[in-house]
């Protein structure tokens, strides 16, 4: 398979400054059929974007958090119906927050607001004291509201369950079993990672719109590289959160997709129960599975995107796993790249024969 259309689509979107660089990796039944980098990882340093360039995967971190939670659920230690008050001792038992279930967090049906800058809470560095103090419930009619807070809480569940840091948990539960090479909250060679935004321009405006003050923003004249672009992950969680903060090359993320395509089996071991995998890749509430999303971006199957320009898409029927990474924030004026994602995934879908 040549996938010539991928080259043309990448060139077109790079020339029109939707991003300066990107990488695409495709596997079918665990075998790589396409892997190529395009453009610049850092246009200031003129660093080329290569096949193994490491990216800030942003919200694709949520799929890693999901995978670990589903492993625990498969072992029977926690369940989808487990409430926060049962697994997080720091949460007051008599609050509405304590009644939220793991299922509601995974499907973004908890009723929590989409976003809040915890780093703006002056000197208060305690996540639980802040989340119980602020108004965290939305007043929208929608059942599903995609929320970073859901996965911040899932990250806290992991830390409480394993009594360890998220970095250590990810290493032991995902990196080592799957034999991943780059997935980490703290990339060793920061200068070799793809650049993202010039300071947190977008979050700065989000705070301004909400009348929230914060004065410790990173410099706006230099691109972020090797540090989480996400403000909460960087300023508040010291780089490690359940919703964002992980770095990886595209090949490692594609391997995570392959675990689901294999029904949760890894090297002959049932890492995640097949019934749990099937539940994850079934629409549960709205367009959400357990952690995964069903949307118009993907021709078939499920996926997840990241704010920095990353995405993972899997098609279970034909055992296709696609990692698609770009540095969409590393341009003069960041834009929505969903049209690019749709074009690429559609081209791949039509190119691969049944």
Largest sheet: 6 strands, antiparallel
Head-to-tail CA distance between termini: 13 Å
What amount of the residues lies in strands? 5-15%
The total count of helices amounts to 12
Structural class by helix and strand composition: alpha+beta
Q: What's the shape? A: globular
Helical percent range?
A: 25-40%
Task: Give Rg in angstroms.
Answer: 19 Å
Quaternary state of this entry equals single chain
Q: What is the string of SSEs from the N terminus onward?
A: HEEEEHHHHHHHHEHEEHEEEH
Low-confidence stretches: none
Averaging pLDDT over every residue, what do you get?
96
Could you give the count of β-strands?
Answer: 10
**If strands are numbered along the chain, what order do they take across the biggest sheet?**
3-2-1-10-9-8
Brief account:
By secondary structure, the protein is α+β, with helices and mostly antiparallel strands.
What does this protein look like?
With 354 residues, this protein is α+β, with helices and mostly antiparallel strands. The chain is built from 12 helices and 10 strands. The strands form 3 sheets. A 6-stranded antiparallel β-sheet has the order 3-2-1-10-9-8. Helix 2 (61-75) packs across helix 6. The model has no long low-confidence stretch (mean pLDDT 96).
What's the topology here?
Elements: H1 4-15, E1 21-28, E2 31-42, E3 47-48, E4 55-56, H2 61-75, H3 84-87, H4 102-106, H5 127-131, H6 148-162, H7 166-178, H8 201-209, H9 231-236, E5 247-248, H10 250-261, E6 265-266, E7 269-270, H11 274-280, E8 302-305, E9 310-315, E10 320-326, H12 338-351
Antiparallel strand pairs: 1-2, 1-10, 2-3, 4-5, 6-7, 8-9, 9-10
Helix pairs in contact: 1-12, 2-6
